[in-house]
Amino acid sequence: MPDRRGDTDNYAAIIVLAAGPSLRMGVPKQLLRFRGQPLLRHVVTTAIAAGYREVFVVVGAHHVAMKPALADLPVSIVHNPRWADGLGTSIRAGINALSTRVTRVAFILGDQPFVRADFLAGLLTSAATTDRPIIASRYAGTVSLPALFARSTFDRLACLPPEAGCEQVLRELAGQTVVIDCPEGALDIDTQDDYVRLVLMSREASRSTSPL
Fold first, then answer.
1. Element housing 17 (H / E)
2. Does domain 12-209 correspond to CATH entry 3.90.550.10?
3. What residues pair up with 195 in beta bridges, in sequence order?
């Protein structure tokens, strides 16, 4: 995995969005066990491995319970007290936490466990080969997160309505967006059935990669 933390021309950060209440799940999905660790920790360690200069985790509804799962990781935890107003408030909290030296920021959802570190690193590689300000993921007929945004889009992201997500900016700037296929991005977790399916898929993947 290339380490881009020494690239002074592209000081990129990544933000993991994990402030939601998990209402459909009934329990904090961020703390469900996945591959021997809390789901959120798995996603965050993936983000760390991608080689961004800084990693932020936006928490909200269950922020007290989540902190122990992240305690020893080199990340900045951002508490969004307005999490109940919608995802847009978490995006704003993440953007507001960035220093002025950050030139690009990526977003990934805290319940996208199958997105790999090399894909997240590849967003930076793609950004280096185009003058377009956004690199986004395509899956399940939509363009969404993970996505990488240049500083020229930060004001738009910070001014999103509370109920809106990054998809609003992706629609508004569709002509300025490079899109990369990421079928793994479609595998998120909202319900108990989603979680059962996730565990079964993970076990099957482990079997298929195990030596005979």
1. strand 12-18
2. yes
3. none
